[in-house]
């Protein structure tokens, strides 16, 4: 599945113009992965990445707008030019870096946690749910466990609740608030530390835009703004 996705993306690389030359830089996000990104009651993109992204655009001198896109096609649609930047809790991986470029990370690797309805789940014999095309899905597959993939984060939670899966593996910052609010769900003791942190995804042809956003990320790291936002939204360890 991943090899097929990469092949499709590579075919779409040609003919995309440099985003930095455009009047507006479009930021593509999923809008379905709180607290990283979600749609608020007004239907607007909200969360840690909305607040950080707006600040990065301000510091980089860019006029930006937000668009949403399904996770499964978020990289192909970046390469095709439907938006200019991915800001969607995307972990930096070697496989993705073959297709797109990344800025420096704006989040440390977030521990991945298992959420289940029982504390005695044996992961080796369990059905583990994960969102498709994520580092968690790849990790479960690498272990040789039984993996069931879903297009959206909500579907992975529903699979555990309805008995289709025994556990779900996702970023701790995503599943912990859900477990805290639902008495039927709990986090298992085991955690995984995978991925190289979260960065902005940018087309390989947009080096100038990457440099501007890299400088903006360095700026929010240097003056403590990034750590303030990480603490506010509880998305992982500070820098």
Give a description of the structure:
The protein has 9 helices and 13 strands. By secondary structure, the protein is of the alpha/beta class. It folds into 2 domains: 2-108 and 196-233, 3-Layer(aba) Sandwich (D-Maltodextrin-Binding Protein, domain 2); 112-192, 3-Layer(aba) Sandwich (D-Maltodextrin-Binding Protein, domain 2), CATH 3.40.190. A 5-stranded mixed sheet has the order 5-1-6-13-7. The protein has a 5-stranded mixed sheet with strand order 10-9-11-8-12, with helices on both faces. A hairpin with a 3-residue loop joins strand 2 (32-33) and strand 3 (37-39). Helix 2 packs across helix 8 (207-222). The chain starts with a helix and ends in a 6-residue tail after the last helix. The model is unreliable at 1-22 (pLDDT under 50).
**Order of H and E elements:** HEEEEHEHEHEEEHEHEHEEHH
Summing up helix and strand content along with how strands pair, one would put the structural category as: alpha/beta
Q: How many distinct helices?
A: 9
Percentage of residues in helical conformation = 25-40%
Please state how the strands of the largest beta sheet are arranged side by side: 5-1-6-13-7
Overall shape: globular
Q: How many strand units?
A: 13
How many domains would you count in the coordinates? 2
Radius of gyration: 18 Å
CATH class of the largest domain: Alpha Beta
CATH architecture of the largest domain: 3-Layer(aba) Sandwich
What is the mean pLDDT? Answer: 91
Ranges where pLDDT stays below 50 over 5 or more residues in a row are 1-22
Q: Beta-strand level of the residues, as a percent range? A: 15-25%
Give a short account of the largest sheet. 5 strands, mixed
End-to-end CA span: 34 Å
Can you tell me the CATH topology of the largest domain? Answer: D-Maltodextrin-Binding Protein, domain 2
CATH superfamily of the largest domain: Periplasmic binding protein-like II
């Amino acid at each position: 599945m991943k090899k097929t996705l990469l092949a499709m993306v590579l075919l779409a690389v040609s003919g995309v113009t440099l985003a930095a030359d455009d009047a507006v830089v479009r930021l593509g996000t999923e809008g379905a992965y709180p607290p990283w990104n979600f749609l608020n009651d007004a239907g607007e993109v909200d969360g840690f990445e909305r607040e950080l992204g707006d600040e990065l655009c301000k510091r980089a001198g860019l006029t930006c707008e937000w668009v949403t896109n399904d996770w499964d096609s978020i990289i192909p649609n970046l390469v095709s030019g439907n938006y200019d930047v991915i800001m969607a809790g995307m972990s930096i991986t070697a496989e993705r870096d073959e297709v797109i470029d990344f800025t420096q990370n704006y989040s440390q690797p977030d521990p991945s946690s298992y959420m289940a309805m029982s504390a005695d789940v044996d992961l080796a014999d369990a059905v583990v749910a994960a969102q498709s095309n994520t580092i968690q899905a790849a990790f479960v597959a690498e272990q040789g466990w039984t993996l069931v993939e879903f297009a959206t984060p909500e579907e992975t939670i529903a699979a555990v609740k309805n008995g289709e899966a025994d556990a779900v593996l996702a970023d701790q910052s995503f599943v912990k608030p859900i477990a805290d609010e639902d008495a039927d769900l709990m986090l298992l003791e085991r955690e995984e530390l995978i991925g190289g942190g979260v960065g902005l995804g940018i087309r390989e042809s947009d080096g100038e835009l990457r440099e501007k956003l890299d400088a903006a990320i360095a700026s929010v790291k240097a003056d403590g703004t990034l750590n303030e936002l990480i603490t506010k939204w509880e998305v992982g360890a500070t820098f």
